[in-house]
Amino acid sequence: MNRKELVEAILKNKELKHLTKKDADTFVSTTLETIKKAVKKGDDVSLIGFGTFTKVRRAARTGINPATGEKIKIKAKTLPKFKPGKAWKEMF
Fold first, then answer.
1. What dotted CATH number matches 44-92?
2. Which pLDDT value is given to residue 92?
3. Within a 10 A sphere around the Cβ of 18, how many other Cβ atoms?
4. pTM: predicted TM-score of the whole model, two decimal places
């Protein structure tokens, strides 16, 4: 499912039939931007029944180039991480 399909799915909800396509797209944009900004700032975003978005730091490490076998240094970096909630995991 891509962003356009997500907006269409929101519009199919009978309780949200008063929304326009632009309103639904704005809702999706605002939600995603708010989550990204909060995680970037270092806050965890927990959506009960869905999951938790967090910021994690990966330490620098030594890797191996699979084509040449040469050792390479991989820099430390910070990345977003998502952990699905219990209810979502149990669906599968």
1. 4.10.520.10
2. 86
3. 6
4. 0.79
